[in-house]
Specification:
The chain is an alpha+beta fold and about 160 residues long. The protein folds into 2 domains: about 60 residues, Winged helix-like DNA-binding domain superfamily/Winged helix DNA-binding domain (Arc Repressor Mutant, subunit A), CATH 1.10.10.10; about 80 residues, Gyrase A, domain 2. It has 6 helices and 6 strands, in the order αααββαββαββα. Strands 3-4-6-5 form a 4-stranded antiparallel sheet, covered by helices on one side. A two-stranded antiparallel sheet has the order 1-2. α4 crosses α5. It starts with 7 loop residues before the first helix and ends in an 8-residue tail after the last helix.
Amino acid sequence: MSSDNLDKKERRKLIKEILDSTKIFEHSTIKSKLKELGHEVSQPTISRDIKHLEYIKGSEGYYVKGKSEFLQKQEELLDTIFYSKDVDIFFNIINEETVTFKICKGYEATLANLLYEVFKEVIIGTIPGIGTVLVLTESKENAQKVYDYFESDELEISS
């Protein structure tokens, strides 16, 4: 079977099965295993799929399921700012694709950067203003994901 017959969903499913069943240290091992199954897949494609599937290199050097340490720290910081008693944030969805945050002066750029890092999969960008941060998304659904993150009791992002 050639890679032309393997769609993205099937390819990612195979990569996930390989990563879950074997300790994989390098992309070349995945590439070899896919080739054994009759699929030619480039290393950059494998790399993108691993990232999309949210696998990271663990402390022992092989791929494990999980968020990157950087993203975890960004989410923790965002939660800290959002729930800090010194920061008052209000938001609502306007124009269906935009979420607006009202925040104490001085925190706008920090909040804008954190929102971008944590939500970069679902937002176009952030615009810090004086006491506000505007979050731009491509769709009402993506704006709702940002909004729901702060409305839920469990602060966890899911794609």
